[in-house]
Amino acid sequence: MIFTDLFLLRDTPYRFAGESSRSPMWMPFMLISMGSLYGILVAFFQKTAGGEIHGYAVEEISNTILIGGNIVAGVLIALFFHGGTTLLVWLMARGVGGPGLLALLYRTSAFLLPLTFPALPYLAAKSVLPEGDLNSILPYSWIYVPLAVYSLISLTVGLFHMFRVTQQVTPLRCAMAVFLLLFFSVGVLML
């Protein structure tokens, strides 16, 4: 029910994250599942594209090592992404006059992670093949960009709902916080 409401972009998951004593049990599941899925996708794309990793041909690396190493790296990336996103969300929440409440934002921002799942194939493909034509190498690459756009839109709406539930500020201030967060993120990506 929580995941259905999450993908239907309702407030229920964020209320659950803030009010339920069981919500901290969901955080590791979401972090590990996001990191594992990303790692598996990276390993799959590396096997599909071929090439070398630190001087070793991908074909010579066993699947267990390749997938395991990418899962560990993916989980670490998910942890850093969650921590960094939480700090930025807290900064924007304080910037628009909200109470902040870092622990609450840490719990609720974990419920934003599943909204990024559709973007993982695009991100994994870009990390494996930063340049070149993805269409000729990777399967179903034509759908990666629309999925990433959908993920960005749903994440933006999810951020709005999260700000509204956790910060108890007006919708205009919530929209301003989301805009500032996206503006800052685009600015960092442009560097």
Structural descriptors:
single chain, 191 residues, mainly alpha, two-stranded antiparallel sheet, 71% helix
Q: What would you say this structure looks like, in words?
A:
It is a single chain. The N and C termini lie far apart (40 Å). Helix content is 71%, strand content 2%. The protein is elongated. With 191 residues, it is an all-alpha fold. Helix 2 (12-19) packs across helix 5, helix 3 crosses helix 6 (120-128) and helix 4 (63-95) packs across helix 5. The chain contains 8 helices and 2 strands, in the order H-H-H-E-E-H-H-H-H-H. The chain has a two-stranded antiparallel sheet. It has one domain (2-189). The longest helix is centred in the middle third of the chain and has 33 residues, at 63-95.
How far apart are the termini? 40 Å
Mean pLDDT: 90
Can you give the helix content as a percent range?
over 70%
Largest sheet: 2 strands, antiparallel
Q: How many domains comprise the coordinates?
A: 1
List the helices and strands and how they pair.
Blueprint: H1 2-7, H2 12-19, H3 23-49, E1 52-53, E2 56-57, H4 63-95, H5 102-110, H6 120-128, H7 144-167, H8 171-189
Antiparallel strand pairs: 1-2
Helix pairs in contact: 2-5, 3-4, 3-6, 4-5, 4-8, 6-7, 7-8
Provide a brief overview of the structure.
With 191 residues, the chain is mostly helical. It has one domain (2-189). It is built from eight helices and two strands; from the N terminus they run αααββααααα.
